[in-house]
Amino acid sequence: MSVRHLLATAAAALLGILGLATPAAAHVLVQPVGAYTLTAGRLWSAVAALLGLAGVVIGGLALARSAGRIGTGNGRRGAIVALAAGLVGVVIGGLVVAAAEGGPGTGYGIVGGYVALVVGPIAMVLGGLALARSRHTA
């Protein structure tokens, strides 16, 4: 048996296997995702939403601190952290929404991405207000 014949037989067998496997793979891709299954899209959207939420909390505390209501610091560091967390949450949430190929419940994490797109700018606004207020008092 020549090497050419062997390679041609191997290629034909591989194409035959892939030809038979393609409908099966398409059937697996169409299967719905369970409601509690953690997919990559859901994970990234949860990370983005939690970053945005953490930015809102830190930004609110920094704003209260810069107003002199809590603690003795001016809240500058917290304001910068809130700005960064909000920005990262918006970027990741936007990527999740842009990459999603389906609606809610498909496992792409589109709901969490939209939550991050709403909560992230709020964190950035709170951080910006706290930063501006800390500059005025310093």
Automatic annotation (TrEMBL):
Keyword Transport among UniProt keywords: no
Keywords, comma-separated and alphabetical: Membrane, Signal, Transmembrane, Transmembrane helix
TM region positions: 42-67, 79-100, 106-132
InterPro entries linked to this entry: DUF6223
Signal sequence, renumbered to the chain: 1-26
Designated name of the protein: DUF6223 family protein
Organism: Nonomuraea marmarensis
